[in-house]
Amino acid sequence: MRKSLLIFIAASSLLTLVFLFNPSATGRTIFALLTAIGALVLVGYHFVSTRNENPPLQFVDQSQAPNKPQLPVDTLFEATISSMREGMLVVDRDMRVVASNPIAYRLFGSPPRSVTNQRLTELTRNPAVYQAFLDGLQGIERSSVKVEGVGAERSVFELRVTPLTLGNGNGPRGALGVFIDVTRTERLELVRQEFLSNVSHELRTPLTSVLAFVETLENGALEDPESSRRFLAIIRKNASRMHELIDELLELTAIEGGNVRLRATSVELRPLVDESISSLAAKAEAREISLVNNVPAGIEVYADGRRLERMLTNLIDNGIKFNGPKGQVTIRHEIGARDKIIVEDDGDGIPMHHLERLFERFYRVDRARSSDMGGTGLGLAIVKHLALLHGGEVTVTSELEKGTSFTIHLPPAPESN
Questions:
Q1: Which listed residue, of 7, 57, 289, 328, carries a Cα 20 to 30 Å from 25's Cα?
Q2: Number of Cα atoms under 13 Å in the Cβ half of residue 367
């Protein structure tokens, strides 16, 4: 290109000297036109040469153009499938695995790379998986096939299989299966079903009682004042139980949904315990349970006072319900890296295998006894979530025939800047 440019400049200079001595105006015009045409030709040639020297980056067939640059397609493909959250498996016509990703390794419980080149029957005996891939090889797209993974934790996947065709009319060359993890969705569905079942059961029992006694009153029991008062007292008790259940459900839903905002400050603990004891004094007296506040005066904790009082009330109420006659419920405080508020009783205790699930919604150690006491099965769940909302936790220890101890662990007040 540089050589052509030099020749063009030399020729232009020579012609310029010749035509400068030409007195004819026509001759000078012809010269100007020739110079312009030469310049355009040179610029066009330069543009074409530049494009040929710097071609754009593109995907090419290596077998047809071995010397041209190409993107690392294999590396790009491997990086893409490895970063997928779904498991991926590709089989050929012989049902042999030709490609997979790490999620698929875990799905089949196989070490990395050991899945490739194996037949599908060597990976799984699940007939639903085999049939889905077989349908894919026959050109049938399948979806919504439920597959359970292997391992200690139960995992559930939804399998979708798509035929792989090349558009040459020879049918699928293979099948691609995508395993979508729906474990969380399945668990949430089970929780929802269990929740609805528990709520229905808790509401059905008192509602049935209310309706039965109302019917009895309508059929003539109103004429007997003594029976009427007794039936009305039972109706009131069951209506209050339903009201309490609904209130606690709404509160627990608000806490779990993040709709409860704490107003944590330094609050004196002993007066809060006194308030909780006062609200439960009649219930404790009816069961001959003594409530003891052993929290020293002047002890302060960092918490939302109203929410902490609710936690204390629930735990003390629990101690009253599941304690024996003439028993005792004691509230005390220990200080350390965290403030510990301990509510302990001297009742029958709780068997060890129940402790792990004690804070679940509607879980009861003794369902019949809890129902007789008017419990909803939500009190301890509310305590757990309120403790977590404070950045703390609640724990339980128990020993049969000696009693149970619940401990609220609260973090210290944040340091001010």
A1: 7
A2: 7
Same domain, 303 and 388: yes
CATH number of residue 166's parent domain: 3.30.450.20
φ, ψ (nearest 5 deg) of residue 200: -60, -45
Domain match, 209 and 280 both:
no
pLDDT in tens, 292-318: 999 999 999 999 999 999 999 999 999
The three-state secondary structure class of 170 is: coil
| Whole-angstrom distance, CA of residue 187 vs CA of residue 256 | 17
User: 122-134 pLDDT, tens per residue?
Assistant: 888 888 888 888 8
Q: Which domain holds residue 246?
A: 186-256
Angle at 74 between CA 68 and CA 79, to 5 degrees: 130
**SS3 of 169, please?**
coil
Number of domains observed in the structure of the chain: 4
Print burial letters for 373-395: b (CB count within 10 Å at least 16), e (below 16): ebbbbbbbbbbbbbbebbebebe
Residues 270 and 400 in one domain: yes
Distance between CA atoms of residues 38 and 14, nearest Å: 14
147 with 193, same domain: the answer is no
Interval 311-365: pLDDT, tens: 999 999 999 988 888 899 999 999 988 999 999 999 888 888 888 888 888 887 7
Is pTM, for the whole model, over 0.70? no
Contacts of 121 (CB under 8 A, 6+ apart): 95, 130
Q: Which amino acid is at 4?
A: S
**Token representation of residue 204:** 């059905």
H runs (alpha helix) in 96-224: 102-107, 120-123, 127-137, 183-218
Strands 156-164 and 174-181, bridge-based pairing? antiparallel
Residue with tokens 């003539």: 220
Q: pLDDT at residue 232 above 60?
A: yes
Does residue 400 sit in the same domain as residue 294?
yes
Percent of the chain with pLDDT over 90: 23
